Amino acid sequence: MAHNLELKIRCRHEQLAAAEANAVNHGLTLTRLHQVDTYFTVPRGRLKLRQITPEWGMETAELISSARPNTTGPRWSAYRRVALPIAEAAEICLALTETVGRLVVVRKQRRVALHGRTRIHLDDVTDLGAFIELETVVITLPDAQAAADLATTAALIGVDPESSDTIAGSYADLLLGRDDRSHETRTMP
User: Fold this and answer.
1) Is 24 within the bounds of a domain?
2) Which residues contact 142 (CB under 8 A, 6 or more apart)?
3) Residue 8, in any domain of the structure
């Protein structure tokens, strides 16, 4: 499994635009994506099928399993991504829906940039609003360095990792009306 340090912050659209402007002013290239994440009912962790339509380029799909605590502020997560043939994505989604059940579908417009090891996601989520998500990919990076990288990227785009607007749960949790600060996701083996 891969690991990362992530942070999700609810914001206003003006803050999202300011973060985008800060990224561009620092020479970062933003890619526009439309993403549809179908979450499935699973006994532990999270499982979603993501369909990605970039502004330019080929549509892709991937199955993502993940586990992390639902805590505010920066938090560690473990995940596995499996690329899927786009021609098979709809059938795989249907098979999973029929066997384990579909939980919720999350639709978002995402602008993505990379700063060092940290992915910047500027999200406009249907029925939820604007969010900024940072994910620092940890391969052989020490935990302290990952935390420093995330903090540096947050400062670069003008967000506070200690903000009271940090989100503990996922977009799926928010759409389902779960109290994202009390729902714990059990870890995967």
Assistant:
1) yes
2) none
3) yes
